[in-house]
Amino acid sequence: MRVGVLLSGEGTNLQALLDDGEIDVVCAGSSRPDARGVERAQEAGVATGVFPSGDYPDRAERDAALAEWLESHDVELVVLAGFMELLSPAFIARFPGRIVNVHPALLPAFPGVRAIEQALEHGVKVMGVTVHFVDEGVDSGPVILQERLRVAEEDTADTLRERLHEIEHRLLPYGVRLFLEGKASP
User: Fold this and answer.
1) Which of 39, 56, 93, 108 could crosslink 62 through cysteines, CB 3.0-4.6 Å?
2) Average pLDDT along the chain, 186 residues, taken 10 residues at a time
3) pLDDT of residue 156
């Protein structure tokens, strides 16, 4: 099954998918032209595209262009791997039940941006990572997998982010493989 990845930053989750060996990543799209993830994809011989919101009159037109680009690569599953933009309902409707996201929290707790900071502000003792299907809400789609970790007293947002990234890099490819094997559905 052909997988398209959307990212906005370093692309470490893209790298985890590429390193997995069982996932056919055919293209990687970015919301930022300077995203390191674009370079990672190019180095791996994966087709790339850049779709900054500022290049389009509105989000709907950007999402339409992004969806058309993914469809031109015959993408069957879209993976959000650090894609820091909301997708329109029209985009989601074009890939029904075929968009997966990774989030640095145990959803439904702490959806959206700043999840790690919010969790620390609330004094949580357990944090984690969720791989889930994307729906029209913010981090509200059905959960595929979750893994937790204890928050240490000395943890800061940076140390916790680093520890959570280690889980993401393992959990996201596993969740994608479950979908590809027909063992996960919304």
Assistant:
1) 56
2) 96 98 97 96 98 94 97 98 93 97 97 96 97 96 98 96 97 97 94
3) 96
**Domains in the chain, ordered, with CATH?**
2-180 (3.40.50.170)
**Cα four-point dihedral sign 162, 174, 86, 127:** negative
- Which has the closest alpha carbon to 177: 148, 146, 129, 144? 144
> Which of 73, 103, 132, 165 does the annotation list as catalytic?
103
Query: Please, what is the angle between helix 157-180 and helix 12-20, to 10°?
Result: 40
Concerning whether 122 is annotated as a catalytic residue, the answer is no
Residue 177 confidence (pLDDT): 97
d(CA 130, CA 148): 9
Q: CA-based angle 120:124:126, to the nearest 5?
A: 115
Distance, in Å, from the CA atom of 162 to the CA atom of 177, rounded to the nearest integer, reads 23
Q: Which residues contact 125 (CB under 8 A, 6 or more apart)?
A: 150, 151
- SS3 label, residue 6: strand
